[in-house]
Amino acid sequence: MFSHLKEDISCVFDRDPAARNTFEILTTYPGIHAIIFYRVTHRLWLWEWRWFSRFLAAMARWLTGIEIHPGATIGRRFFIDHGMGVVIGETAVIGDDCTLYHGVTLGGTTWQKGKRHPTLGNNVVVGAGAKVLGPILIGDGARIGSNAVVVKPVPENATAIGIPAKIIEIPKDAIEKRRLETAKKIGFDAYGTSNDMPDPVLTAINRILDHLHAVDHRMDRMCETLRRQDPNFGEIEQLPNLDGCELHAQADDPPLK
Q: 10 and 93: one domain?
């Protein structure tokens, strides 16, 4: 149990850039407090000290805002970020290296006894506010988008978003591949965008990416022409990575067409 707890604490440094030291994690992270309580209550549950384990679990919910049933099965290096409002049911099974954000529910869809909560494989990430309901399997490496409602199994390494959740596949057509390459080049993460989502914001993003691709293509042609006129004209420099930068449009900037 203590070896699991040590791993639960150490994995926070890999998944939360705000974490500074172990003391801060132990004293200020409700997700860690909840998993400490869970490790104790689950052991008591296996020893069939059922009432006492439920009592401690209720105390943990009162202190942390996170409800984990002692009967749930949770693997190693489990991390709940922020945590408020997380609910994990009795028959839920969570693999190793999983991450849950605030407002996540691993719930059931029936009042019948038996397996009624989801099973998460290894390396699963469940976004804030997502609901994963019923005795379904979420495959290894799967990603559940924020506020998604998942009621069907999710394959390995797939991404599920929406209400009800749908699987987002990697785009295979040339236009979508080009958009992803353009986004990667400028340091933008086009996570979860696809043509079949009627979202005006995503439509605007796709048009911006198409516009940037056209501008890049035109600039490449201009540079090639300049190099033919002047052999000493330097090579095109790589675009800098824009991760973490804040871009502010100037008032006199012309609108994109």
A: yes
- Residue where a domain stops, chosen among 168, 197, 225: 168
Q: Which residues span the domain enclosing 189? A: 170-257
Cα–Cα distance between 79 and 32 in angstroms, integer?
Answer: 7
The answer to whether the beta carbons of residues 44 and 27 sit under 8 Å apart is no
**What is the DSSP code (8-state) at residue 111?**
S
Helix segments in the chain, DSSP class H: 2-15, 22-28, 30-46, 50-64, 174-185, 200-229
pLDDT digits (tens, 9 = 90+) for 199-244: 566 667 767 877 877 888 888 888 888 878 877 766 555 555 544 4
Q: What is the pLDDT of residue 83?
A: 83
DSSP string, 193-232: --TT---HHHHHHHHHHHHHHHHHHHHHHHHHHHHHH-TT
Tokens 């020893």 correspond to: 47
For the CA atoms of the chain, what is the radius of gyration? 24
Specify whether 185 is located in the same domain as 159: no
Domain count of the fold of the chain: 2
How far is it, in rounded angstroms, from Cα 135 to Cα 116? 5
Same domain, 233 and 191: yes
Q: Which amino acid is at 86?
A: V
Polymer length of the chain: 257
